[in-house]
Protein: 2-dehydropantoate 2-reductase
Organism: Halopseudomonas laoshanensis
Amino acid sequence: MQQTKPRVGIIGTGAIGGFYGLMLAEAGHDVHFLLRSEYDAVVKNGITVDSMVHGSMTLNPVQAYDDVAKMPPCDWLLVGTKATGNADLAPIIAAAAAENAKVVLFQNGLNNETYLRPLLPDHIHLIGGLCYVCLYREGPGQVKHQANGLVDLGYHSGPASGDDAAQIISAAAELFRSSGIEAREMGNIDAARWQKLVWNASFNGVSVLLDAGTESLLKSAASRQLIGDLMSEVVAAAKACGHEMPEDYAAKLLKVTRHMPDYYPSMYHDWLHKRPMELDSLYREALKLAAQAGCSMPKTEALLNMLEFIQDSYLQPE
């Protein structure tokens, strides 16, 4: 029997992939999950999202795979892996993608699509995706969702252009909206990535340095000032690179964060579990682009130097 319903593949079934994949599956979409170390646990117990917004949800059974060669070709691929693993990502995407597949890259930082594009087959449509969501992985197949869930989507590259590319982004947005997830269609994904970086580059690194979540960081005048200064540097760098920023953007982000549940960003969990941190995509790329535009980011550079010291202490052999 011919497959008529689009297949959705999840590459990287951690917090991001687990949450969005479960939401899509709950809405009736045909969702397939690629896993590594958590495969046995997910096959046995399913995927559970404990959400402060949607309540507790469990998907069981799960269409789960421990080898991409076992997955059926997917029309949509949602990539929730860390940018630190992008060197090994392209062959996995190529193996899982159906002809003319649409690949949504849900990763933090700048220019991840630009570096990945040359490694992918020409027929693949590469879409930049941004998640505005507070969540973290509690255990194998277990996700804690605290707030939000909005996604931004913008066409990066592939065989489509103009109206055809816009229609693909509309279809991507509708895929999420049909699952109860707010989605926005972006004409300039690079500008959107800079906007998200204003929050990410500030709170991620400082949470590691000070071993604190958003609530504690905003209670202290000293850390609040540091975060505000870092945000201002990213805003200035974005403008120097030709991207418009909303008026009083840093102040607005701080206000929104005060109303969030106490949140420990993704880099904090990478540090906590002694995994590589996304220093390239969140910091080095921004510093490089800012320097090319004649803009200095001294506090951001100092933050990166301290994070490199911390990461080297647990990644480099003694």
